Amino acid sequence: MKITQVEAIPFAIPYRKPLKFASGEVHVAEHVLVRVTTDDGVVGVAEAPPRPFTYGETQAGIVAVIDTIFAGQVVGLDLVEREQIHARLSRTVGNPTAKAALDMAIWDALGQSLGYSVTELLGGYTDRMRVSHMLGFDEPAAMVAEAERMRDTYGITTFKVKVGRRPVRLDTEVVRALRVGLGDEVELYVDGNRGWSASESARAMKEMADLDLTFAEELCPADDVVSRRWLVQQLDVPFIADESVVTPAEVTREVLGGSATAVSIKTARTGFTASRRVHHLAEGLGVEVVMGNQIDGQLGSLCSVAFGSAFELTSRRAGELSNFLDMTDDLLAEPLDIRGGQLVARSGPGLGAAIDPDKLARYRQD
Ligand code: MUC
Ligand code: MG
Predict the structure, then answer these.
(1) Which of 15, 141, 148, 276 measures 20 to 30 Å from 77, CA to CA?
(2) pTM over cut 0.85
(3) CATH superfamily ID and name for 3-115+358-363
């Protein structure tokens, strides 16, 4: 089970409609397919979705760092030496998305080699999650129509609404329209991607006090240390830290510092090895967890549901698993199927993710 080759293949697939939010917008999925081959001929895969405006990683940068730094650190190691692999990749402070995709492709290869699904290897709690859909910026009527379509077509009843625009009324009116249009049956929460100040966030949350929100996420920057703590202490819903908690140490700092009361786990940035550490830490700290979405394609969403299904804490809340629906196509040979508001992790072995060779040939950029 020795790793003999690591490939980083850039590909690009357009979105049917762009996803817009306070820190950026995505029109084309310019992702990287990572493939890990072993001496037994097993091939593990995962997907890296760079978010330049958040983590500074780009598609070209991910290909370069894997080819020139990370591949050489793991080739020759056995698939079971996961802590050795983690230690070597962790010498590099940044590049979370590149490290995560490599880590997940190794777990996929390990699962295939041992004959178990990744979910079974990680924890095996269940095999499915409820799905939460992210709604990007648009006019209130268009966002309500989008949510109704997701509910009627896929049975999705949990929605994360992007906020963080100015004036705050632009967003609070959208959330009110969603509550009125969809009724009390749906769950709603908001994500500001650091777009507001702490005081704007407090005002917006007051305006939405009667809308029965489940969570508020990263409404203002974590670096506004004192004012963010002030905000989090006055809210009556958990405050999710997302892009401010890329490492377990950051989770510890934000939670113990009173600047977050829940965490988003994104396998796209912590893979399986470090996501497991974040999960255990969240359990020990006693904070809630939401499986987040780095605007993943189908392979990335399969990784999220594989991890989220593995533990009780991560499968308790709906996971953000559906934004691949906005893409015009994908690389998976067998598309993901959201039904009754749920997504099932594949029974494996590994991730159970076969790549369609014709689609890869069509969309690859190298
Ligand atoms: C989110 O939860 O913030 C937007 C940027 C990113 O990296 O992830 C998305 C969703
Ligand atoms: Mg977020």
Answers:
(1) 276
(2) yes
(3) Enolase-like, N-terminal domain (3.30.390.10)
